[in-house]
Write a structure and sequence with these properties.
15 helices, Rossmann fold, alpha/beta, about 400 residues
Length: about 400
């Protein structure tokens, strides 16, 4: 297929957290707010006068320093973020809006905010830098909704207003929702091309586009995303597809497009992304229902759209399997790759359950992968993916497809 016009530019933006557009927003006087989890509503961090950056650790090779502080038996994702912080990669942040969700990223964010009165041990060399934590419920109930809304009011809206003078009025919230929805609609429009029998966008390309929308100021990246959506309207697929099967990628954190490129180099086109940095949750527009305040709508949206493995009730666990299967059907996937980062408690359990339940109850073959945040074992992963592709191909032949 013809190369996408802005793909190389998008790839360059993902090479560091403090990319050109983030620096431009900083020059424009915007407060730059970091976050790590879907439960920190991105829309609230893009009120007038501030922008959000979902933290990643691109090009982190080995989290040796972070391991000293966090031990070698904690998730590689959290340690890689810590390593990048120790290297100065997040010095541009004005604040970190943290959530008490994942234990390891919570620990990483506690380190970011630590200040000693006796010696200089501050990671972020900015006396005005602050970390603010929001508690997130473990259930989807009316009480949970009420608690979550109060937490967001106090620890996000009040914090931004009191510390930085950010406008947190209903009018400002409605504008932030409008801006958020516009980005979501662009990404959804692009994602529709993955449903074609012969998709005109690869999983790697879509991952890059999605991540750019999370790592860059919306007002500076929106036009190029729109151009990409327009470009895809006339993009022609290859006469002979270079993939053998289609797969859905599900599981925990994956903010590395090269991991998806590795999967696709083995003949499996990634057409759906039900993982923590995917668009199938993170790019759903927010609806304000009649009688709702903007904050109530935001709270409901993030609590109920999340498919996080933190929700451990049986009905929620069963629903997550159904959601994965429904996406596989909608996007015409032949199989599902379920991933978790090594030492990730939530997603390690979830991955093992998915590996058993999804083939048994929904008939989709599953490839179960425990990976490092850094893909150092690419040779072993390639062997696993190639074997999975061959097994799914054989299954399709046996079924006469």
């Amino acid at each position: 297929m013809r190369d996408l016009k802005h793909l190389i530019y998008f790839e360059e933006l993902l090479q560091e957290a403090n990319n050109d557009l983030v620096r431009k927003a900083k020059e424009d006087g915007k407060k730059v707010l970091g976050y790590t989890c879907y439960f920190m509503p991105e829309v609230l961090l893009n009120l007038p006068g501030c922008i959000s950056v979902r933290l990643r650790a691109p090009r982190c090779t080995s989290p040796d320093m972070a391991t000293y502080y966090m031990s070698g038996r904690t998730c590689h994702y959290g340690r890689s973020l810590m390593e990048r912080a120790l290297e100065g990669g997040y010095n541009f942040l004005d604040a970190q809006l943290a959530t008490e969700t994942c234990t390891v990223t919570c620990r990483f964010q506690e380190h970011l905010g630590y200040k000693s009165e006796t010696f200089d041990s501050t990671i972020i060399p900015n006396n005005d830098f602050k970390v603010e934590f929001t508690d997130v419920p473990f259930k989807k109930t009316e009480n949970s909704l009420d608690h979550y809304e109060k937490e967001l009011q106090v620890h996000v809206l009040d914090f931004l207003k009191n510390e930085y003078g950010i406008d947190t009025s209903d009018k400002a919230l409605k504008q932030a929702i409008k801006d958020y929805n516009e980005i979501c609609e662009i990404i959804q429009e692009i994602g529709e091309y993955r449903k074609l029998d012969n998709p005109t966008i690869t999983g790697y390309e879509f991952s890059v586009i999605t991540l750019v929308s999370m790592a860059c100021p919306w007002y500076l990246i929106k036009d190029k995303l729109k151009e990409t959506a327009k470009e895809l309207k006339t993009r022609k697929p290859d006469d002979k597809p270079n993939w053998k099967i289609k797969v859905e990628l599900a599981g925990g954190e994956n903010d590395d497009p090269d991991f998806i490129k590795l999967i696709e180099s083995c003949g499996a086109l990634v057409v759906a992304d039900r993982h923590c940095y995917g668009a199938l949750e993170a790019r759903v527009p927010i609806e304000i229902k009649e009688g709702e305040t903007p904050l109530a709508a935001i709270t409901r949206h993030y609590l109920y759209t999340s498919q996080c493995a933190r929700y451990m009730e049986q009905k929620e666990m069963r629903n997550r399997k159904q959601v994965i299967a429904d996406y596989a059907k909608e996007y015409k996937a032949d199989g599902i790759i379920v991933i978790s980062n090594k030492f990730c408690e939530y997603w390690s359990y979830e991955r093992m359950i998915d590996t058993i339940v999804i083939p048994r109850d929904y008939g989709y073959p599953v490839c179960s992968i425990e990976k490092e945040y850094i893909n150092s074992a690419s040779g072993q992963l390639r062997t696993r993916f190639q074997a999975f592709v061959e097994s799914v191909e054989l299954k399709k032949i046996q079924e006469g497809k």
